[in-house]
């Protein structure tokens, strides 16, 4: 039986990869500034013990009974009550003066992508909001020459003398405007409480829970790594450890890419990845995670999770926190009581930890270390569980995307002892085949993050079945291939005849019809239920606030209806296929009943198919 040739002319046998994340590298170089211990007893942070424990003075004729816990005023109680209910996080975007001037075209591209990413994160994460204007802290070690250390003095732990060369505060190379900062003062005498003000308190940033400085430039790191799109770090935290401000550096070169319609989604996915890092998905913040699950006033009566990192019997470092463990058990369909989420074992620091998931086990997650084609990346429930377990956020799990990789495969899935066996997700040779989401033709390859395991990776050129433009690259009429947003990769050797088709189709697992949220970028539409809360944009260049661009949502993936041509295909299959193949076809037909089936072909046999070539199936 003749094999259908690959319709994508000039295919390069290399996977399409956008570059790795360097978050751990840059975050370790940043000093995070928090309120000075014992000093920040102001209205800015009503959820800290210093701010909410306001004594109530009782009338002398009716003294209050002695209590070891400070009493709170009714005003403070009302404020705490209003703050106890998490609301969508408000992320304010600020373009600093250091950022070079962008063309209108570049700026539009940049802010559209950043707005969409911020909108998506705001729809996923809720936080106990900052009640007043957000004020960042000054680093006492930068402006202060020495601090009064004697605990018996009135001005204990306050600055006694200022440094003469103090100029400004910065966040990952960005100068923080004075209006964003709290004031600072010195106390020349240890027993005199009257300070000398060095810098007055700024006005703060209104309606903000996290301040994101967006700096666009061709930096040394951008030039050193051509595939690097962006990197970020957080630089300020509140008294509970929650990040308050950070800087996102976006490499300028990608803004000039010609294929921007596609690159736009790459940029959005990259910004979401970096935002998750600076908001809390960081190994440096593991020790600050809190359990607020039983607290009536979350953030007030929380306690530390304790040790959340441990190494399993196979030497794999894992994150063990309650919501993460439950998410892993559900995903892998396992009752294993010690099933934490594995952390990447490559590019780790001296502490042996990484701020990314292990690629072998959680391939396709938004927080994997290697950024790939955006249509293959999922904002998964395990990542959201990790953010929930910080104790700072309430997560909207209803917006989590299906993490297809390894679902239901058991607690040993992705281990080095099992990944070298051929399976639904892993392959063992260098054949061509289909990526596990069936959106791309692929080749069985490995990378440094897979530790020698092999998977089908998308080819670098014209491998997307969903990209209609690939049809122009040289379609073989005999194969019957059609490219479009409804096309998917299948294993088949069908050829087109005058009267229909001849050949076999290998029916894959039911994932083609099971997941309603799997769709390529070309199928994305604006979300109807997008939250009205958007990102505000401000700038040192008098950039005005603007409405956030709506975040595109994935169109539900309808099941397959069989057209006239497909009836002919089914007839051919019923004659030539084995009984098991026919049974699989019937199962697919029953589960997929509302879209047409189209067929695409590749050139070489996959690792597990009884047929020689692979093909793609599309659906309308």
Automatic annotation (TrEMBL):
The chain crosses the membrane at residues 567-589. Its cofactor is Zn(2+). Residues 1-19 form the signal peptide. SUPFAM superfamilies: Metalloproteases ('zincins'), catalytic domain (SSF55486). Its main location: membrane. Its EC number is 3.4.24.-. It is found in: Membrane. GO terms for biological process: cell adhesion; proteolysis. Zn(2+) binds at residues 273, 277, 356. Binds 1 zinc ion per subunit. One of its GO terms (cellular component) is cytoplasm. Keywords: Hydrolase, Membrane, Metal-binding, Metalloprotease, Protease, Signal, Transmembrane, Transmembrane helix, Zinc. Pfam families: Peptidase_M8 (PF01457). The active site is at residue 274. Belongs to the peptidase M8 family. This is Leishmanolysin-like peptidase. It comes from Anabarilius grahami (Kanglang fish).
């Amino acid at each position: 039986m003749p094999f259908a040739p690959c319709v994508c002319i000039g295919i390069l046998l290399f996977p399409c990869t956008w570059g790795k994340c360097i978050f751990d590298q840059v975050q370790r170089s940043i000093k995070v500034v928090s309120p000075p211990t014992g000093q920040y007893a102001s209205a800015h942070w009503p959820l800290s013990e210093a701010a909410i424990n306001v004594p109530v003075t009782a009338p002398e004729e009716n003294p209050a009974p002695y209590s070891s816990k400070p009493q709170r005023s009714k005003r403070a109680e009302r404020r705490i009550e209003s703050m106890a209910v998490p609301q969508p996080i408000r992320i304010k975007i600020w373009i600093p003066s250091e950022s070079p001037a962008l063309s209108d075209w570049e700026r539009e591209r940049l802010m559209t992508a950043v707005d969409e990413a911020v909108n998506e994160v705001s729809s996923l994460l809720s936080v106990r909001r900052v009640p007043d204007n957000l004020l960042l802290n000054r680093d006492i070690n930068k402006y202060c020459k020495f601090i009064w250390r004697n605990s018996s003095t009135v001005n204990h732990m306050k600055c006694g003398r200022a440094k003469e060369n103090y100029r400004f505060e910065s966040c990952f190379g960005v100068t923080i405007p004075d209006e964003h900062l709290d004031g600072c003062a010195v106390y020349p005498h240890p027993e005199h409480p009257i300070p000398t003000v060095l810098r007055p308190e700024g006005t703060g940033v209104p309606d903000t829970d996290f301040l994101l400085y967006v700096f666009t430039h061709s930096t040394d790191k951008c030039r050193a790594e051509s595939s690097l799109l962006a990197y970020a770090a957080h630089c300020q935290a509140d008294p509970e450890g929650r990040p308050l401000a950070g800087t996102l550096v976006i490499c300028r070169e990608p803004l000039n890419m010609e294929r921007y319609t596609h690159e736009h989604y790459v940029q959005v996915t990259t910004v979401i990845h970096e935002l998750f890092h600076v908001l809390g998905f960081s190994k440096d913040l593991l020790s600050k995670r809190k359990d607020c699950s039983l607290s009536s006033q979350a953030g007030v009566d929380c306690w530390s999770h304790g040790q959340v990192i441990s190494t399993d019997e196979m030497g794999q470092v894992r994150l063990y926190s309650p919501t993460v463990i439950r998410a892993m058990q559900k995903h892998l369909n396992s009752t294993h009581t010690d099933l934490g989420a594995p952390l990447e074992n490559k590019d780790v620091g001296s502490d042996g930890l990484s701020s990314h998931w292990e690629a072998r086990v959680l391939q396709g997650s938004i927080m994997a270390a290697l950024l790939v084609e955006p249509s293959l990346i999922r904002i998964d429930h395990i990542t959201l569980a990790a953010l929930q377990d910080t104790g700072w956020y309430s997560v909207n799990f209803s917006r989590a995307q299906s993490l297809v990789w390894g679902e239901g495969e058991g607690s040993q899935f992705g281990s080095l002892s099992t990944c070298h066996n051929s399976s639904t997700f892993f392959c063992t040779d260098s054949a061509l085949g289909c990526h596990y989401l069936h959106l791309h033709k692929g080749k069985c390859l490995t990378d440094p993050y897979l530790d020698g395991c092999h998977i089908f990776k998308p080819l670098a050129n014209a491998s997307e079945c969903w990209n209609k433009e690939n049809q122009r690259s040289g379609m073989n009429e005999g194969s019957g291939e059609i490219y479009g947003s409804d096309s998917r990769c299948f294993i088949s050797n069908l050829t087109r005849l005058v009267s229909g088709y001849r050949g076999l189709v290998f029916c894959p697992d039911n994932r083609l019809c099971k997941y309603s949220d799997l769709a390529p970028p070309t199928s994305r539409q604006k979300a109807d239920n997008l939250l009205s809360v958007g990102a505000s944009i401000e700038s040192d260049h008098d950039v005005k606030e603007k409405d956030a661009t709506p975040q595109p949502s994935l169109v539900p993936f309808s099941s397959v209806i069989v057209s006239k041509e497909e009836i002919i295909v089914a007839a051919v299959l019923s004659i030539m296929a084995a009984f098991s193949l026919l049974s699989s076809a019937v199962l697919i037909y029953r589960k997929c009943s509302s879209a047409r089936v189209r067929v695409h072909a590749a050139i070489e046999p996959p690792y597990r198919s009884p047929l020689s070539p692979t093909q793609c199936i599309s659906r309308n």
